[in-house]
Amino acid sequence: MSNSGYQAPLGTEDILPDKIGLWRFVEDTARTILGRYGYSEIRTPIFEYTSLFNRSIGEVTDIVEKEMYTFQRNSDDKDDKDSITLRPELTAPVVRAYLEHNLDKIKRFQKLYYIGPLFRHERPQKGRKRQFHQMGVEALGSTDYLLDVEVIDLAMSYFEALGIKDCQLKINSIGCPACRDVYREVLKKSLDKHKPSLCASCQERYQRNIFRILDCKKPDCRKAAGTVETFEKYLCPDCRQHFDGVKAGLDAVGVKYQVSAQLVRGFDYYTRTIFEITHGSLGAQDALCGGGRYDNLVQELGGEPTGAVGFALGLERTILALEALQVSVPANPTPGVYIITTGQAHRAVAFKLLKELRKRGVSADMDFEIKSVKAQFRSADKSGARFVATIGDDEARNNTVKLKDMARSEEKEINIQEFLTDKSINDLIGQK
Ligand code: HAM
């Protein structure tokens, strides 16, 4: 219960210092792996003009119909009159930036990544937030099936590097618009007789976005979806060849997958390969990562025909999986040196020493609550500092500190200048 009566908005979360170690771990590991795979970071605004999302994600999708945080400002300023939306995803903003800054002209093939917050007005539950964070990649400028394999392998390698074992990878191909037209008719025909048993949403989906019936979780809809022939059977020769290439590529690098005919994704921009990575520890919201190819989006947003593929993975869910698996992560940083003073008069000397240590690259701290000596020792202990430097009357007079190595329980008195260049202190330089 909050002390002030104020709470963070429903579906949002404060990330407190005791969780930051986990966040840094998932972010730092991401940057290491992404660097290894040759991806460069891109940062786009938190909000975009609404039309970008309507156009790219698709008007008849849950996100655009129900989940966007959209604002219209009443102002005389022309720019302010345009509707803006807090980004519910980052694929469209990255493509927008790729075109706006002519990245395609500078170097057509670009491998980009992002880490940041997103906003969707969904019903909050475990693993489903209204503000959440994604790490994602967008590889633009190629239709090579090996690039699909690369991004899938990258996501799987990331989870492996974090220690999240037993991830399930599902893949499917939803072909190109031509295959989709053919398959839409197949679906209409096969699902027609099951229409009365479909849930209310799927009855509507039958008219507006029939592919989404395939991933409805309701038992009757699943049963109906189970009776239809797979999309794979209706792929055109080029899309079939592409999908075969992806499967062979995954086999070649030893990435295990399951082809799932039921897999569809909630965005209109996908073509050909789509995939999802789930983890059994997560409960109902078990998708850690989703992605796929979107060969028509760049053109749809005003560019040349440009093959592209990417994914995004949810960092909150990644952290939930790490916690469920009790994967040990690096602890929060601890100071190298904690300085204690036995009297008010020595605090200025201590403070100067603190500054010198920090200048040398050593993490150091002291008491700022004017605590008793005993309480300062308790704080030093709690901080986990490797060395405790005490300045009392004798030390102040002699220009020394009493230095205790907490790991070895050894204590010595040392001149302040020598202390600053002592080997044990040098060893702490740059340590986090
Ligand atoms: P998405 O499947 O909507 O794909 O989101 C990717 C991941 O973000 C999900 O698998 C999940 O882990 C996490 N996520 C989604 N919604 C929430 C939520 N409300 N709370 C917590 N986590 C959530 C995309 O966003 C596409 N832009 C991915 C992509 C990139 N496709 C191609 N390139």
Describe this structure in words.
By secondary structure, the protein is an alpha+beta fold. The chain has two domains: 17-176 and 236-324, Bira Bifunctional Protein, Domain 2 (BirA Bifunctional Protein, domain 2), CATH 3.30.930; 337-426, Rossmann fold. Helix content is 40%, strand content 20%. It has helices at 17-36, 50-57, 62-67, 78-81, 91-100, 103-106, 145-162, 177-192, 200-208, 219-226, 237-252, 297-300, 315-324, 347-359, 373-383, 393-398, 416-421, 423-426; strands spanning 40-41, 47-49, 70-71, 84-86, 110-119, 131-140, 168-173, 258-259, 271-278, 287-293, 308-314, 337-341, 364-366, 387-391, 400-405, 410-415. The chain has an eight-stranded mixed sheet with strand order 1-5-6-11-10-9-7-8, sandwiched between helices. Helix 7 (145-162) packs parallel to helix 11. 35% of the residues are buried. The mean pLDDT is 94. The structure holds histidyl-adenosine monophosphate.
Q: What are the SSEs and their pairings?
A:
Elements lengths: L16 H20 L3 E2 L5 E3 H8 L4 H6 L2 E2 L6 H4 L2 E3 L4 H10 L2 H4 L3 E10 L11 E10 L4 H18 L5 E6 L3 H16 L7 H9 L10 H8 L10 H16 L5 E2 L11 E8 L8 E7 L3 H4 L7 E7 H10 L12 E5 L5 H13 L4 E3 L6 H11 L3 E5 L1 H6 L1 E6 L4 E6 H6 L1 H4 L6
Parallel strand pairs: 1-5, 7-8, 12-13, 12-14
Antiparallel strand pairs: 2-4, 3-4, 5-6, 6-11, 7-9, 9-10, 10-11, 14-15, 15-16
Helix pairs in contact: 1-7, 7-11
The structure holds histidyl-adenosine monophosphate (HAM).
